[in-house]
Amino acid sequence: MTRSLSSVACTTALLALTACAGPRDAVVADTVATPVVTERCDASRAQAFIGQAATSELVERARAAAGAATARTLRPDQMVTLEYLEGRLNIRVDEGDVVTAIDCG
Asked: Which range is the signal sequence, renumbered to this chain (predicted)?
């Protein structure tokens, strides 16, 4: 009986300690600094790319022209995140991957 009580006590203590521990990824995420984006996007400087095929080279040239830190291509009916990032260029394309609009966010 004493042996089973100490097993139960040890198991209970172990479960209690495990419940207090957080996920390993949370510790790693806290130690990694998020880069600060200082570049601002100016979509007006990339409007010349509208009407062209959205190749990877065009996306990079449009990103550089707009001064954006990042760029993404948005296709019709594509699900996207809604957070606004002032350093991101959005290149909107049609079904044939032709650029129809360019904006920031």
From this structure: 1-21
Please, are residues 102 and 66 in contact by the beta-carbon 8 Å criterion?
Answer: yes
The CA distance from 52 to 12, in Å, is 65
Name the domain count of the chain.
2
pTM for this model (two decimals): 0.63
Residues in the chain: 105
Gyration radius (Cα) of the chain, Å: 25
Q: Tens digits of per-residue pLDDT, 34-70?
A: 444 446 899 999 999 999 999 999 999 999 999 999 9
Is there a contact between 70 and 89 (Cβ–Cβ < 8 Å)? yes
Range(s) of the domain holding residue 77: 43-104
Residue 21 forms part of a structural domain: yes
